[in-house]
């Protein structure tokens, strides 16, 4: 298995992985959401990384410059925000997510980045385990997305 920065030709495969993972966890995305994700992958400052096994994309990661005010403010020098990490259901538990995060960490550090951050659901034990194993730690910050859905921030200094 290899990881690499995605090319625009990889975006459809990355969206397919994202979609398959969401369907598998009982959250099939609506068409408008699929379109928004596809657009985010194509943004000029997006960092899209894919994992490839046997010639097929089996994992995807989307990151972007971190911003103040929880994404609503100005860019924060050195901060990179991880928007999503998804692995095809048939490849989950095989280290794909860890490889994607390692590639991002190396890439961002080479660009002079100093910190990665990610928000994940308080009840998403699988994602939290992934981030902890990759060296991330809870920042202590939480937020309420919607009634009953709390998210937690994890960070790592590079």
UniProtKB/TrEMBL annotation:
<dbReference type="InterPro" id="IPR016181">
    <property type="entry name" value="Acyl_CoA_acyltransferase"/>
</dbReference>
<keyword id="KW-0808">Transferase</keyword>
<dbReference type="InterPro" id="IPR050832">
    <property type="entry name" value="Bact_Acetyltransf"/>
</dbReference>
<dbReference type="Pfam" id="PF00583">
    <property type="entry name" value="Acetyltransf_1"/>
</dbReference>
<feature type="domain" description="N-acetyltransferase">
    <location>
        <begin position="1"/>
        <end position="157"/>
    </location>
</feature>
<keyword id="KW-0012">Acyltransferase</keyword>
<protein>
    <recommendedName>
        <fullName>N-acetyltransferase domain-containing protein</fullName>
    </recommendedName>
</protein>
<dbReference type="InterPro" id="IPR000182">
    <property type="entry name" value="GNAT_dom"/>
</dbReference>
């Amino acid at each position: 298995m290899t990881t690499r920065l995605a090319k625009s030709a990889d975006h459809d495969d990355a969206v397919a992985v994202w979609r398959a993972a969401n369907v598998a966890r009982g959250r099939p995305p609506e068409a408008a959401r699929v379109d928004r994700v596809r657009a985010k992958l194509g943004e000029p400052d997006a960092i899209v990384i894919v994992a490839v096994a046997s010639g097929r994309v089996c994992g995807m990661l989307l990151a972007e410059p971190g911003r103040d005010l929880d994404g609503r403010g100005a860019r924060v020098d050195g901060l990179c925000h991880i928007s999503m990490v998804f692995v095809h259901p048939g490849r989950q538990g095989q280290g794909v997510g860890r490889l994607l995060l390692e590639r991002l960490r190396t890439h961002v550090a080479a660009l002079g980045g100093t910190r990665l951050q990610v928000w994940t659901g308080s009840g998403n034990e699988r994602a939290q385990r992934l981030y902890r194993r990759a060296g991330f730690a809870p920042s202590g910050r939480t937020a309420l997305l919607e009634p009953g859905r709390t998210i937690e921030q994890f960070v790592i200094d590079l």
